[in-house]
Design a protein that fits this description.
The protein is of the alpha/beta class. The protein has six domains: 135 residues; 98 residues, no CATH class; 135 residues, no CATH class; 169 residues, Alkaline Phosphatase, subunit A (3-Layer(aba) Sandwich); 67 residues, no CATH class; 84 residues, Immunoglobulin-like (Sandwich), CATH 2.60.40. It has 26 helices and 24 strands. The chain is elongated. The N terminus is likely disordered.
Length: 778
């Protein structure tokens, strides 16, 4: 019958039927076992018993597939008259007789005519009954010492709940029911194992939920709701539930917590909470549970931010920080998860920007200022980019864009003017010192056009999140900060360029050939010098390149010129692309990847301020730089061209532009254009690598496919990938030899919740992560 820990009602039922078939020594084997059930209480268990009791037959309409039929057919079964329907050899047929009592069969004269052929089977066979001769009812079997011996309340409500719960109860381990007095609520909870989830499902779609329930299940649901929540779904309705949910307290707090974990699964609850509520005391409700309060706060914040956009810089910064204190907590409300708090979400980045933009960067020298910017100053740029990318709708984006401008532009202009003042020390003829990029064996130089320093800082975080060792350094880009001038400095062949180049279109020339150092010619020259030039979809060969390799990736600068301030929304995907490429190169055998760039850029929503420059003074003019004619003497800052100090480059003061309406531009002198990152990336100390290939869901279990170079990698599923305490799986699993792990979510209340699959090294450090939705695709 199974061990004590795993015995179920079905196990006990099969064992009892088996005992009833035993015959005393010297007596004939029964031809059949009659299972009488006057009220049809056991009917719901027959489908569960039938697969393991091949000799079980039922009285009813003829259906060979379910082994049921009328009395005359049952007699044929007992007599084995039809081979196709006969029970297996060596077994005694068990005849389940719903609607028939043992007393009726014994009262032969009063027995219904259609049942009378069964009467004689009492004598040639046996009847499954209690010791007192009565039929086995479900209640009797569960409570009797000859059955399961459970302590069950003897009242009509418990009896009804017991019968409703019978299909679930049948497969529930009995030991979990022992040692306590079982009442109606205990059996209703078996029928409705997760009342909080089902209550939310009902609130989300009352009519649909009730239709999906069997009558017995609906009654159990009502009973538990009345018992635990003081609510009758049928009589009180969903509006009363919404009021209680917003009021909170007791078990309703559990309902609210569950709703907040996966609000999109219960979308109807959000709509329900928006409906007008009758009665007094609305002000006493928890405001975080009232979507209308959040809506009103969002509208108020929108108006406040529109006013900020027209305020002086210092006042605007102070006001944004005040708004953050007031509205920041709403980011923890469930409405933020549902995308209903766009201004509060954008306010997080705006507040960081406001705090940082209150203090312009200073310093006595170019080196000191560059060091300060590379240490902390770039975080102001990052906050501005994050704010621009945070608002999704057109209306929200317009408001946030102008707030960014009023907070960011004065800080940016003040920093730039001071940087230009200090840089004027190079105006006498000395060019800005630019470190040389060298080709080295087993090192791949990865060039990224327009990788500004703030993006380099974010890229460092992404790479370190993949367990790579990253050293972030900074250097100065040559003037003017355009690709034609600066890209040659980011190659291992910069010493092949003439330092007295003519300067057409800011493009230097090769010393030997006299050809312009365009990208195709730079690639050709690197190949000639022994540097392997690797295509974007290839990895190169670390063992055959004496001076390493050089390759390119990403489209940051191209997208900036094309999209303007909308570049902010593309930055994260471009940085992920760069991180993927670095990881791919290291995986292919390169000892180190050196990420370099040519220049940074300025980005200002609404456009950089226009600066006039007379055309007769200019030989070549771009948005942030212009080469001056030999006779020209503009009233603007000028600097020596890096490849020929005799050629003068004019740059707009501050963050100005020679072209009207430029949101994205480079070529001038500013921290953002001149101070560029250089990242040196190597494998982690342990050399352990693991990448998630795919995540597939089947029910509440997901299968994770992984590519890893060593054993010891484990997979987990977390609500917050940084916090092990938010794991929602029954067990963190090791990746098997086939590169897979199966993770089971231990509580289906998390169904639909946003989660993160993470890969862990033996110390618990996250190697890779991928977002998913629990039960995705169910």
């Amino acid at each position: 019958m199974g061990t004590k820990e795993t015995v179920t009602l079905l196990d006990a039922l099969r064992e009892s039927l088996k005992r009833a078939l035993r015959s005393a020594e010297g007596t004939a084997e029964p031809v059949a076992l009659l299972w009488t059930d006057a009220d049809g209480q056991w009917r719901s268990l027959i489908p569960k018993l039938r697969p393991e009791l091949s000799q079980l037959y039922s009285l009813g309409r003829f259906d060979r597939s379910t082994r049921s039929g009328p009395v005359i057919w049952l007699k044929c079964v007992v007599g084995r008259a039809v081979a196709e329907d006969a029970p297996p050899p060596g077994t005694v047929p068990i005849l389940y007789l719903p609607g028939v009592s043992r007393q009726e069969l014994r009262a032969s004269g009063d027995c219904r005519a259609e049942l009378q052929p069964l009467i004689e089977l009492q004598f040639r066979g046996k009847v499954w009954h209690q010791a007192n001769g009565r039929d086995w009812t479900v209640e009797a079997f569960l409570s009797s010492g000859d059955g399961l011996g459970l302590d069950i309340a003897q009242d009509a409500r418990t009896r009804d709940a017991l019968l409703r719960a019978l299909p679930v109860l049948a497969e529930t381990p009995v030991e979990g029911l022992r040692g306590r007095h079982l009442e109606a609520d205990d059996f209703d909870k078996l029928t409705v194992p997760d009342i909080v989830r089902d209550l939310l499902r009902w609130m989300s779609d009352p009519e649909g939920f009730e239709k999906s329930c069997q009558p017995a299940g609906w009654q159990s649901f009502r009973n538990i709701c009345k018992q635990e929540f003081g609510l009758d779904p049928e009589n009180d309705g969903a509006a009363a539930a919404a009021s209680a949910l917003m009021q909170g307290g007791g078990r309703w707090d559990d309902v609210w917590t569950r709703f907040c974990e996966a609000p999109r699964v219960y979308a109807g609850v959000s709509r329900l909470l928006r409906e007008p509520m009758a009665g007094q005391g609305l002000l006493a409700l928890d405001p975080s549970r009232r979507p209308i309060v959040n809506d009103e706060a969002e509208e108020r914040l929108r108006r406040e931010l529109e006013q900020v956009a027209n305020q002086p810089h210092a006042q605007a910064c102070e006001r944004v920080l005040e708004l953050e204190k007031e509205h920041g907590p709403r980011r923890q409300w469930v409405w933020a998860q549902l995308g209903e708090s766009p201004y509060a979400m954008a306010l997080a980045s705006l507040a960081r920007l406001a705090g940082l933009a209150q203090s312009p960067l200073g310093g006595p020298s170019v080196e000191a200022m560059a060091e300060g910017y590379a240490s902390q100053g770039w975080r102001c740029d990052r906050a501005a980019m994050e704010a621009l990318s945070s608002a999704k709708g057109a209306r929200e984006a317009n408001v946030v864009t102008w707030v960014v401008r009023v907070l960011y532009a004065p800080w940016l202009d003040a920093c730039t003017r001071h940087f230009q003042e200090v840089m004027s020390g190079y105006a006498g003829g000395a060019s800005i010192p630019v470190p040389v990029v060298k080709g080295e064996k087993e090192i791949c130089v990865l060039f990224v056009d327009g990788l500004r320093f703030d993006l380099g800082g974010i890229l460092q975080e992404k790479l370190e999140g993949r367990s790579l060792r990253v050293h972030l350094n900074h250097r100065l880009a040559p003037v003017p900060t355009v690709t034609a001038t600066a890209k040659p400095c980011a190659t291992p062949i910069s010493d092949c360029i003439r330092k007295d180049s003519p300067g057409d279109e800011f493009t230097p020339m090769f010393r030997e050939s006299g050809q312009p150092a365009s990208t195709p010619r730079l690639r050709e020259e690197m190949q000639k010098s022994g540097v392997e030039v690797v295509e974007t979809d290839e990895a190169g060969n670390p063992s055959t390149s004496p001076l390493g390799s050089w390759t390119e990736t990403a489209r940051l600068d191209e997208l900036g010129h094309k999209l303007g301030s909308e570049l902010a929304a593309q930055i994260d995907s471009q940085l992920e692309r760069i991180a993927d490429r670095v990881f791919e190169l290291l995986e292919s055998g390169w000892r180190k990847v050196r990420v370099v760039t040519d220049h940074g850029w300025l980005l200002m929503p609404g456009g950089l301020p226009k600066v006039e420059l007379p055309a007769y003074l200019v030989a070549t003019r771009w948005a942030r730089c212009a080469s001056i004619t030999a006779e020209g003497s503009p009233n603007l800052p000028t600097y020596p061209w890096y490849w020929n100090p005799q050629i003068r480059i004019a740059c707009p003061p501050g963050i100005g532009s020679f072209f009207a309406g430029s949101e994205y531009a480079h070529g001038g002198v500013s921290f953002q254009e001149c101070v560029v990152p250089e990242l040196s990336v190597e494998r982690g100390e342990a050399g352990l690598e693991a990448v998630i290939q795919s995540v597939q869901w089947r029910g509440m279990r997901c299968r994770v496919s992984v590519r890893s170079n060593e054993p010891g990698v484990r997979a987990d599923l977390r609500l917050n990938w940084k916090q092990p305490a938010t794991s929602i799986v029954a067990e963190v699993k090791s990746i098997g030899p086939a590169g897979e792990a199966s993770l089971a979510v231990k509580d289906d209340r998390h169904e639909g919740a946003a989660a993160m699959v993470v890969l862990l090294d033996p110390s618990g450090k996250v190697l890779d992560r991928r977002s998913t939705s629990v039960g995705e695709g169910r």
